[in-house]
Design a protein that fits this description.
15 helices
Length: 310
Amino acid sequence: MRVLRSRTVRWGFVVVAVGFLCWALWIQRDAVAEALALAGWSTVVVALLVSMVFLALTFVAWRVILHDLGARITWGGATVVYGVGQLGKYVPGGVWNIVAGAELGTNHRVPRRATVVSLAVASVLTLVTGFAVGTLSFLFAPRLAQDWWWVALVLSPIVLCLFPPVMNRLIALGMRILRREGLPSAMSYRGLGGATGVTLAAWVASGVQLWIIAVGMGMDAEWSTLLVCIGASALGWAVGYVAVFAPAGVGVREVIVLVALGGLLPEGSVLAAVVLSRVLTILADVAFAGIGFWVAGSARRRQRSEEGAR
């Protein structure tokens, strides 16, 4: 714990995460340039704003879960914990955002176990709802259903996690395995239901972002294509969560969306749309992390000012 609290280790983690993030951008630079030429800057700006909405909704869902578990944190503190901690997604392993969030949460008097459990529950919620929404694309993208039909089989049992009695038993089991004390509160129907609703709204925003880009590149602006984009984007993110070997699911989500949009756009345009969608999401993560760093810095300056006034 002393090592994790070290300022050197914390900044080293940020450097490593940003390094992987920059690598993800660098390897896709040529496709991004092509996408910008096809879509135009106005489309890119609108899609980036929708990307921020998607990220903000996932943030709100996590905070709802944290509060339902009995831990309280201000909006500013939550922005620091979630925004900066999410940089850990870009470090291979699939758990570093949770580790980072747990350490950042201690600065705001949130017990590590509460942050870890809330982020884990948010991840499970993202996975389950992503698979559920992803089945929408099966109705409008038969090629995707041929390769990913097994998702429906996987979804059947794990959807039970959306019920508080099941989720609470899983949390209790995890705490016993880790030999940690339980949390002050259990997940309620209101809390888990509210977080589920916000997460579903986030998937809609994610699909709208992809749809705006694809329409800008020539895809028909129809309800059916919008539903394909919503389903494909959600399914891609969900499978990317499972693929812990890929930083933030890079490459995994793109394959699924490529298959889903096949036939709706020329092959070259599909690849450009998928890459641009990923890059804009990365930029939204960077912006959110930047806001988190700014909030944290403002809080430190305010604290120093108050101490100096005394």
